[in-house]
Structure prediction request, 372 residues.
Amino acid sequence: MSARLFLAIGLMSGTSIDGIDAALIETDGEGHVRPLGFLTTPYESDLRARLRRAFGNKAGARDPEIAALERELTVLHADIVQKFLRQGGLARPVDLIGFHGQTIWHQPEERATIQIGDGALLAKLTGLPVVNDFRAADMKAGGHGAPLVPLYHRALAAKLPKPVAILNIGGVANVTWIGGGDDDEIVAYDVGPGVAMIDDWILRHAGQAYDEYGVLAASGHPDEAVIERFMGDPFFAGKPPKSLDRNAFKNPLPEDFDPADGAATLTMMTVRAIVDSLRFMPRPPMHLYVTGGGRHNNTLMRWVGELADIPVSPVDALSWSGDGLEAEAFAYLAVRSQRGLPLTVPGTTGVSKPTTGGTLHMPEGEKKKAAG
Prediction:
């Protein structure tokens, strides 16, 4: 008998802090995945600035300022869900929400991670069951708690020639290598910075949220000496599993650097980290497909294509939603959590065994932990 098909909404606010993505999929949490809609809502500049200031706060919601920010963020997510449902024209009710929240601190060495976002409040405001807190069980079982999207990558890539790799460039960049459908044929890890360092530089030196299409970087010249020193960081030599906090490489350039040269240097740092990471894959992938906001940076994409020895394409070439993929993934993981299926396996986070996770919040306020 086939498994039940869920209608699930996934909500994602990534380390690039550009906004909130909402995606609707139909899935059984295994091989059946049907994307049904996507909505993105950019953050207003004031909220983005306050989220940026929250990064690195180890107190989390114990800090009254962070608690107020968490509530504001949760209410905004609820408003987006309601807007999404109003425009959806759905044939049947949504079963579940997967709510990632906003990561403000992630230190796998300390087995600690903080995502702000109140799952119980979101369930109350939307009237729908909500699964959040996806990382804690993995970290308790010895994993890094990241990356979490690889099993969704595997489901989407089921019919692609293998091996194949899916690169996600958000604030941090991570990659999934898929050699087949079994748990010992998937490897995933953070590869280094994504666009976070570039965005921070552009904000300080150009007053913009990001380097649109990589135009500023294209006008500058990467400083090879600075890049070589950067690539000497022990993180890059370390074998997977490995994951990063958004600010792990904070401010690697002197502030008196030329703005365009700084953008070019930081962009090439991201590119070099991506290309260097390919050596940790069991076999070279036949193709590297790129998802996440970083794929819109034409300079970054061009340089990855020039330095990698494999074909590189945005996932849009596969008719996947490059902007909505992570949100879809958390809808998928919420369903897996409901079914008691693993969210992570040893090859994705270094967890000791396939591990489920997540916390379920019911609209009436009941709460229970997912099995595992």
Summary: The radius of gyration is 19 Å. The CA atoms of residues 145 and 296 lie 27 Å apart. The mean pLDDT is 93.
